[in-house]
Amino acid sequence: MAGPLPPAVGGMASVIGALSASSLAQKVDLQLFQTGKTTPEGRTVWQGARTRLQVIQDFWCLLSRQPRPLVHIHTCSGFTYFLDGIFLTIARQRGAPTVLHIHGARFDTFLDGLGLVQRTVARWLARQARAVVVLSDDWRIRLNSRLPGARLHVVANGVPSVGARLVKAAGATPQFLFLGNLGRRKGVHVLLAAAALAKNDWVVDLAGGEEESGFTEWTRGEIKRLGLAGRLRLLGPVVGDAKTKLLQSADGFVLPSLAEGLPMALLEAMAARLPVVVTAVGAMPEVVHDGDQGYLIPPEDAPALADALDRLSANPQARQQMGESAYRTCEQAYGVERMVDALLKVYSQLPTGVTR
Question: From residue 114, how far is each of 118, 138, 143, 172 by CA, in Å?
Fold first, then answer.
């Protein structure tokens, strides 16, 4: 299994981390391979190529020592997709069946923005994989026409249980958690505007790195300019036990994204029994129903976001009920072992034996 490995920050690393800690490691001979950094700073052509040369050589040597392994490659949009295509091509040349696992909130717009030659190469790469995994039915529909000939399979992300929530003192200020790399796509600018409109007392902890270079400093400047230092707190990247503690201590989760796939952060929040406030983009409307697991709002709608957070902050009973509903939904449909079962079904259709 190749991709950005933990402790890297981001959805792909979270997926790989969850799978490596699941029963998959007992059901297949699982080896993890670090393909390198996938943040924007690593996506320029020359920098990305330099950092990958040694990795590509290591990948070739690894496959040379293996008797026709199944290769599962996690990828996303941008130049990363074409770089990961090198791993895919090497695996095919070595006779290894391949699974291409597509993450990324804007993979459709990435394909739409390619020129004729690049689009032809992108489609060719997808056809080389014996299976292309997408995160939801919505993404299967979006990519079916954009990647003609690709063998598409839907495998929803899955998360392990987070554990018990921490008991908080009555009357404590409600604390919401934003978990994700900071950038415009994640709706951070909308969250800032909503915080300025808020009527009730609540705070949001923003935990994550940067999706856009310099966005943390921009956000810090906006917080100061708008006088929101007591409302929004920047924590930086948080992983492992520190992330678990944040999930256990939060009263709710917020992710006002403009575009998404199926964010691991959302599923992790639901596994932690948190009510969620998210936008109706990507696969999130397939997971969250307005008024049930939380609130589903339009993207780029700061007043709606402020209203949803105000309502949740004022109603502890609703937070508990929605949080329990979110947990049940996650356990029933998005547990990591369900993801393992779905992947094993995909693997079983490929011309190799993968189970022990």
Answer: 6, 21, 14, 50
- Angstrom distance (rounded) from CA 126 to CA 307: 42
Residue with tokens 């990961």: 84
Q: Please, what's the b/e burial string for 161-170 (b: 16 or more CB within 10 A of its CB; e: otherwise)?
A: ebeebeeeee
Domains of the chain: 2-158+336-348 (3.40.50.2000), 175-333 (3.40.50.2000)
pTM to 2 decimal places? 0.86
294-312, pLDDT tens digit by residue? 999 999 999 999 999 999 9
How far apart, in whole angstroms, are the C-alpha atoms of residue 43 and residue 64? Answer: 28
CA angle at 297 for the pair 103 and 230, rounded to the nearest 5°: 95
- pLDDT digits 0-9 by tens, 201-213: 999 999 999 989 9
Which of 146, 191, 207 has its CA nearest to residue 9?
207
